[in-house]
Amino acid sequence: MAPASLQVIFLGTTTLYLSDGETHLLTNGFFTRPPLTQMLFGRLAPSRERIGQALQRAGIQQVDALLVGHSHYDHALDCAEVCRQTGAVLAGSVSTLNIGRGAGLPEERLYLANAGSIFSWGKFRVTFLPWKHSFPRFYPGEIVTPLVPPVPVSAYREGGTFALFIEHPAGSLLILESAGILPGALKGIRTRAVLLAVAGFPRLPAGRERLFREAVLNTGAQRVFPIHHDHFFLPLDNPPVLLPGSRAVMDWLERRCRQEGIGFEVLPPWERTALF
Ligand SMILES: [Zn+2]
């Protein structure tokens, strides 16, 4: 009997919907995508309307758990509102949970993740691995009290960064939603697929190669999918407008993957793709 298949929908930046038909996970859930001027000079708050529209467009009704890798606004701005609209529990750092608290999510729906924390939902097993944010590290530190938007972008402190290792009988995947490198953090991890952030990717060839080795070659990945490559100050189109610099990184990744006999695949936004 064939194992259950695993479907993914790429929803911009590092927002990914994963479903095996029974259990549904979402990472980050960033849909508001405020324009650049608002990010720089204004205050940020989740847009209930945009979140609702995005969930509807993607055909997402219910989510069991929302997994957040770090608490910068382009990852975590909408996490609490997405939980509210989908019924999901929120899993992440102290900082992420304080975003949930600020929005009034009850404590029983807040799952604190530390480096190495493992959670199971249905057939999914999720490990929060320690990881490092890409350089430069904007707004380091923690969100130490419940965060009530609207707030300036600087209020969304990083709160530490996790890599998400998601195991499922259909196949495993590793989500690196920030392109830093923490040498040795992925030791022992074997995965079929890596979803790798393009924004903040190392500029120098040696750094690029080091990240590729840690994330792709050492994990035995057979497939690489770019994420965080879309221009997140604009609405998400299909195909997406790319962030400046994304094309060069994606070309580099594609070339390196080809040299190693590894698949490089770009997920079309909004569309359900069978991953395994
Ligand atoms: Zn970040």
From TrEMBL:
Domain of life: Bacteria
InterPro entries associated with the record: Metallo-B-lactamas, RibonucZ/Hydroxyglut_hydro, UPF0173_UPF0282_UlaG_hydrolase
Annotated ranges, domain Metallo-beta-lactamase: 53-126
Name of this chain's protein: Metallo-beta-lactamase domain-containing protein
